Structure formats: structure tokens, C-alpha cells
Amino acid sequence: MKARERFLKVLAGEAVERPPVLAASSTATLEQMDRAGASFPQAHRDADLMARLASEALALGLEGVGVPFCQTVELEVLGCEIDFGSDRSAIPGVAKTFPGFAAAAEVRVPENLLKKGRIPVVLRALVLLKERHGDVPVIGHVRGPFSVASRLKGLDKMVMMMLEDPQKVTEFVEATSAVTVEYAGAMFDHGADAVTIEEMAAAGNILGPDLFQQFVVPSLTEVIKGLKGPAILHICGSSENILEGMVSTGAKVLSIDRKTDAKRAKEIVKGRAALMGNIDAARTLGYEGPEAVRRETLEALEAGLNIIAPGCLLSPITSSESIRAMVEAVVGYGK
Question: How far apart are CA 84 and CA 105, in angstroms?
Fold first, then answer.
């Protein structure tokens, strides 16, 4: 069975001979940069370099490709200065000098959004990936509305505002939702088979179920309802207490971190969405080596996760050997 067919069958709730093994977010590592001749920060700004680097995931056995490699594309378009770092292992972030927005009214979504910043680069890279790798799932990565709003305002300030002036939180999230809808929608038009919505600021251990339901679920539900294809909802940290809310958004796949117990997640979700994860990207894949990766991957398989994947984006220092160990454990499972 081709990798794309297997992936789409899982999203449709159909039986497959084994879980797909891929990633919900960035797979770029230093070793892959060397092989591709495409490194950070240039690969964040050039469509061909971005596509070449993303394609290296396939050489390691991963069964999907995705772009971009950072969570700053939307923030840059909305006026944030981005620090791309001084070396190729750096992950782009908002510059420390960015003061944040005082009110949602200051957030300006530009006209011709899809022509602004690095959005055309990402969309072109998706076209190239689809042309070159039509038999594997092509996945676009966007930052969720709450996480965009939280970075524009500042997460600490956002949490305080939830308690003191909740209407202003809603206004911030609504102001950023339009960006997610248009950007993610364009990804499907440019070849994406699915889009990962990364809501890293909405972890259950940060918000809890009540705040998650009030401030995150409504915007995500509207965004996902308006998409032209399936959504993967990725939330870092512990998610057990917000899984019901995650299911209610309509996402086809819930991508969970290692901090979420996979067996418990299966019990809660009860087949209402596919579950993806939850190999520890930072510790196990990043540092502990192939044997530890194999053990953890087998645990995820035994727990019944529908798609095996890193629980978060891969660190650039992750070894190819560790990624291959995850793939080999999945491909060999049950044989």
C-alpha cells in the first residue's frame, strides 16, 4: 500500500495493515541539511531549498513530507520581527525586542495575505513537494489562532486577561483566525493532503479544560469547518484533560506529546479521531539513541496509536539513526 493511501485510510477510519509513520511538524535535522545541501536559515526563505530539505525525511523512511519548519510565518506577516538565529541549528522566533500588541484592534491582517512575507515561499514548496512525491502525504503546518494571538499579546498577559477581561481574549483570537483560515486553505490549493494546526500555547497543563473550551475550541472549530481537507490538531504538553475539547473541534487527527498517556488517550477518544504520536522528540529521539527509540515506539504501537510520530517537532540535532529506529520498529511491527 502506498504511503499516501495508508495515511488517508487512517484519516477515514478504515483498517490498514500497520500505522503510518511520519511527523505532524518539522522533521529538519542537521544531517538532513548536509545531505540536501539546504540549511537554515536559507531554507526558511527559499521554496526549492525548503522542498529539498523536507524531502530528506523520505530518505530516512518517514512516510510524509511537510513545511514550513518554523512557527513564525503568520507572526511575521502580522508585524513581528523574526530572529532567524545565527547558526543553522537555530529555530526562528520572535525577536526579543518585539513589545507585543496592547489590544486586538492593533492587529492588522494585510490585504493580499497570500502574497505577503514567506507565505508564497511555503505555498510554492508545497507545490514542489506534491510534484516530486505524489505517493506520500504532503502536510502543511500552520500556527493555531490562539497560539498566534498569545504570541502577539504575550502568553502570561493572555492568561491574566482570561481571568480579568475574557472578551478581550476572544477579540485577539478572532483577529488572528482569519489568517489561519486563509493560509491553511491555500495550502490545500497548493497540494497539501492535510494541514497540521499547531496550538502549542493551548496545552492542557497551561489552560485546563474549562479555559481551553472557552477560548480555544470555538476558533479551532470554525477554522477546521472552513478547511478544504483534513486537519491534524497538534498540542504539546499534557493533553489528557483537554482531549474531549480537541475531539469536538472536528480535527481528523489528534497529535499528542509524550506527556500524554497514549493508552488513556485511546480510552478517552474512543475512535472519534485518529491519534498520532507520541515518541518523545526532545529526550528519546534527541538524545537517548536507537534502542530507547525502539522501546518507546513499541509502547506507542501496543497502546494502539493510529499514526506513529514524534510528539513534537524534531530538534535539528536529532540523529538519522534514531529516526530510522522509529521507522523500522513500525514497519517491522507484527511481522
Answer: 28
Sequence-separated contacts (24+) of 41-44 with Cβ below 8 Å: 41/84, 41/85, 41/88, 41/90, 41/92, 43/69, 44/68, 44/69, 44/70, 44/84, 44/92, 44/118, 44/121
- pTM of this structure: 0.97
**For the chain, where are the E strands, in sequence order?**
65-67, 82-83, 93-94, 138-143, 194-198, 231-235, 253-256, 274-279, 307-310
Nearest 5°: the CA angle 290, 293, 294 is 90
Q: What digits encode the pLDDT tens for the residues 194-229?
A: 999 999 999 999 999 999 999 999 999 999 999 999
Cell numbers for 303: 497502546
Query: In a 3-state reduction of DSSP, which class is residue 82?
Result: strand
List pLDDT tens digits, range 89-141. 899 999 987 888 888 999 999 999 999 999 999 999 999 999 999 999 999 99
Collapsed DSSP state (helix, strand, coil) of residue 100: coil
Which alpha helices (H) appear in 154-203, and where do they start and end? 155-164, 166-189
Three cell numbers written together for 165: 477581561
Q: Which residue has the cell 509524550?
A: 258
**In which domain, by residue range, is 89 found?**
3-331
Cell of 143: 500556527
Q: What is the CATH number for 95? A: 3.20.20.210
Cα distances (Å, whole numbers) of residue 64 to 127, 197, 305 = 14, 16, 17
